[in-house]
Amino acid sequence: MTGKFKSVAAGLGLTLLAGVSTVAVTGGAALAQETVKLGILTPKQGPSASIGLNMAQGAELAVAMHGGKVLGKDIETVWLDEASPQVAQQNMQKMADEYKVVGVVGGNSSAATLAMMSVAEREKLPFISAGSAASEVTGANCNRYTFRAQAPVPVQVSAVFNELKDKKIYFFTPAYAFGQDVLRTGRSKLEGINGTEVGNDEVPVNTADYSSYILKIRKAQPDAIFGALVGLDLSNFMKQWNEMGMKGSIPIYEVAVSDTDFWDIGPAAATGTHVKPWYYNDQANPDREKEFVQKYEEKYGQPPSDKAFFGWFSMNAMIDSIEAAGSTEPQKIVPAIESWTYKDGTFPYYFRDFDHQLIRPAVIVKLKDQITDKWDFMDVVSWTSKDADETVAAFGTKEEIGCTMGDL
Amino acid sequence: MDILLSQVANGLVLGFIYVLIAVGLSITFGMLGIVNFAHGAFFALGAYFSYELVRLFGWPAAILAPFLVAGVGMVVEVVLIRKLYGKEPLLGLVVTFALGLLIEAVIRHFWGTDGKPLTPPQFLNGFVEIGPIFMTNYRVAVLVATVAVLVALWAFLNFTPYGRIIRAGSRDPEMVDMLGINLPRVFTGVFGLGCAIAAIAGILAGPLWTVSPSMAANAIMPAFVIVAIGGLGSFAGALIAGLTVGIVTAMTIQFWPEASTAAMYVLMLVVLLLRPRGLLGSQWERFE
Asked: Where are the beta strands (DSSP E) in A205-244?
């Protein structure tokens, strides 16, 4: 092979290589443009695994109900585990670095949400927490990229405390951020209802045996138990409460409960009056939510829990906002979520601009005395607030919340 | 004082359940030299099998669950565990840890992530009050059943030819092999026995704890703590350690509930600092 021919061949080869590379890059870009990635970060294991699955299923259904598309492109969901605050934080980082998602929905526990939202702020990743309730999420630790769907602890506690006037109360809360918030808030409201604290236990998460706690409560003889156990922890407690013959003896009031907490233990042990974000069989639910219930039952063979609802609701807000922004840029999505409004409710619900808290009342439910249906365990007693003005007032003022929102 | 007595009695019930889980783990380690991280998964499998049997045929059918779990355990021993004998201990830890995750994933696949309601048999409803001690009938039944299983196991290991083979094999497997005893078959049986005992604990715990995939994790850590405190491979050590852990946990709940799950680890730390082999751990020639 002559030197001239070698040069020509080499040049041809380089040209071909360059051409192939160009095609590959262009093809890759074309492929990348075909999907918009959205993250779902909920528990897949541990005591809240059931809650996490429900939340993810609700979010997936929201994608399906949007035709699987946003901005004319296919939506691709990435579901990672919120096993613990550490794991949740690592997976939030993965969402940003590896999967390049444009927004994340999830965050069931307050502790995990607080860990995830610091990544959201650093990576400029829009994040809607569907399940957390601790005040700090939209209070002292708030940031511009994080939104929260569930009513915060003070709203839920106030609703239950209306039922506890002049009573001797035993506080029974989980030993992490959310539980500590509930205990602190409950104690601060005792004087207002002329209540008395006769005992309290802060229970480590994932406790299997509650019999020793039940003996303590039995000895303290309260008029009511006010608690905030979550997931299987609440299920185990209720089950053992019933097994020890205590059901019906002392009324139990809980905040932030989920349907799965009771479905897991069956009708025999389910008891109490509780605050929860939503109930599938609430006659006041608007048509859009009734359609969601119908589609969820068709797809998953059972009614949606409140966690499924908030997975659906939060993913709807995220997709609607991306569509409204006309872009996947976080600096455009965040203002779009801030101005997003859910108009299908009794009155409009929205994420408040100064703390990113969804302004929407929760329901107060009572477990039926006779449960005959496999899923319908509860009667809706009332809502935490009745109209728009009352709801805004219940969620507190800017000064009370204490959020200093950063820039984009 | 009344509440303390009541808590001690309650702690004993919890301790006996822990003992049952730990004894199976201890036997598996003592005979096979395998630290079985999948033991909690067999405990959960026992609860799930009993849930299914009770749902289909009523409570008497739950007696089949330990046999079914033992069968699963023996298949696992032949297919997987057998290949770990005489190998690096770390390999056994990793493989059984993965096995535990696999069994949990299988449980999630067939039964889902949500909990399953399993309630005590009707005839055990109600409770007994003896002086200050308050206990439900079901917990008394758990106490009686656990003691019966432990006594039967002790008698089996000490007074039957099979028990003698197991005990001899746990000390010197080569010698037992040279005596013409089919050691691989004995190993399979021992692993199945360990799994069956874990399953019995799972059945008894099912109506107390919610039957869910994560119940495996709730069982395995106390079991390891008890085996470490009692001394690896020691039946009596597991019994003493299990009851101690149950009572310490109950008393911590009474006085410092936030520390109730940490209490057993502190106990383990203290025991191992004072006696690294555990309370009744002795020197094992094959592991030296």
From this structure: 224-227
